[in-house]
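Exam revision sheet. Question 4 asks you to relate a sequence to its structure. Input first:
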Amino acid sequence: MAAVNPGPVTQAFWAGKRVLLTGHTGFKGSWAAIWLSRMGAEVTGLGLPPDQTPALFTLAGVERRVVSRLVDLRSPEAVSATVGARDFDLVLHMAAQPIVRTSVEDPIGTFETNVMGTAHLLQALRGQTALQAVLAITSDKVYANNETGRAFVEGDNLGGKDPYSASKAAAEIVIQSFAKSFFPSVPVATARGGNVIGGGDFSRDRLVADIVRAARGGEPVVLRHPEATRPWQHVLDCLAGYFRHIEALATDPATPRALNFGPKPGGAEVSVGELATLGVEALGGQPWRHEPDPQSLEAKSLAIDASLARRVLGFESRLEAPEAVALTMDWYRRQAAGEDALSLCLEQIEGYESRP
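Answer key, structure tokens:
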């Protein structure tokens, strides 16, 4: 068993690394781009233009910190041209259509992006000669969920009753097949992250973004499933896990090819309603309102077991849910008051790195 590392990431590992980061224009991708560039990585971003306004990518000026390429993963020619333009040491594949309700509205587009987009990327990477590791981000929703409440472990069956979950489970199979067929000497792995919260998320149908919009508009946030539980984690905990996973893949061939990243094992479950209450109280908004959606395909219970990452990487999340919510809402309060989004992100990254 590995001892828990006193630092969340090994900054010296990333200095000078040529990193291809897909999805760099999204919420989580923008945080990743900021953190990686701060550690001295040479980041090339590949993704679509931001799909909402405001967007953290724009607010924080992420395009000034990376080489930004606006490319649709559904276009194999565009992906191949971008990937073939330079050599990369590491690849962090985060680009996706990430919203369950959007996947129900547009299942074909979701499968095209999440499955074929991943295949296009991996096909393009076959021409790379300097690769040390590839990590593709899937989801905690890749598991066949029978609603027992048991936390899923990496060896559990994959599945998905909604198009988003199914597309991510299918992407796992695509990734495994490419790894075994075409990357015999390069570790290609997947990371299954929990539900991520953090400052700068303004996406449609994301709980924290909905809470912030409602509070700023003086309206109550509407919850479809306040009783549902999710493995909430702060974006910095999630990204730190991804970064540590890539570090290990590049240096230790025995590193698992699939790992869960979520709340600290044994931590208390937090429901959607409980998280919304914490957020509303922090922002001084109105109490949330329940409007059931009987047609929803979203799981009522979802939990993942992240203990394998602790055992093999010495990594575990540092922020419990209440602290993660407080840090998130502090970001939104200060940004709304006029503070610079990039400065807020860098301050929180530095604070996270210095935690004991």
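Marking note for examiners. Residues 11-353 form a domain with the Rossmann fold fold (CATH 3.40.50.720).
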